[in-house]
# Entry
Amino acid sequence: MAADLGSVAAAAAALGVAQPSISAALKKLEDQAGLQIFIRQHAQGVLPSTQGHIFLAEARRLLVHAQDLQKATSNHSGALEGQLNIGSFLTIAPTYAPRLISNFNNLHENVKITLEEGVQADLLEGLRKGRHDLALLYNVDLPADIRSVDVAYLHPHVLLPAAHRLAKKAKIALQDLADEKLILLDIQPSRTYFLRVLESQGVKPMIGFSSPSLELVRGMVGRGMGYSLLITRPYGDRTYDGEKLAIREISGSVERGIISVATLKQMRPTRVARLFEDFCVKHFKSLRVSS
# Structure
């Protein structure tokens, strides 16, 4: 409660307990754990320390595990129940999350699912601080404390205006675009990945425009301002303002994009999280998105 509210006084008021009792309990907990769980800020409340974030996330999961055990022994129907907090990369969420969550809830209607979209750094922070039980993200340069299960392997494609000189080709060599402006999806790890793909083909791109918005990138390409490399392909090949786009394969072998389900290595997943991870593997396989 003190971690959520950022104040011992606020926690005491919410629980109807004297503030010295909360302070004493926190001090005893830190002594027993051998950790400084909270950083005390004079007149500004408390903040979890780096170790505190990990401790609190694990403590919350222990409570969930206890609830899982209780439900398993008392729920004679065997129905799965619980809370699942998912993080998803911005471009993955609208393309895959609606069907994924809907299909899972069709099987397990008593599981309450929340979804928070974010960039890679937000998702990793969410896993470390316990906001996310798991995250759907791209497996690009993931840190050592993250465990990931790959669920889909995707080939990037070239995005062109429909009237582009190369649009008549079924496959396009990236070297043929070396003298044209790149409209870059400027969001990590997409930026790193797409520039790495171009570099692997000996292309040093001329970035004409960059944006963290997938639809803005598509819109700029549609208006003839350059080409782009993308993995995500929304349904329909038109921009928001109606311009026709050409989506073409890349000739030659390039690094594939990998969608993964990620968790924090040191955290024990809940029963619901384990089942959802297994469901993700089967779900993406059924979609035939891997290639």
Q: What stands out?
A: Residues 104 and 276 are 7 Å apart (CA to CA). The mean pLDDT is 86. Residues 50-74 form the longest helix (25 residues). The chain has three domains: 2-48, 81-153+258-287, 156-255.
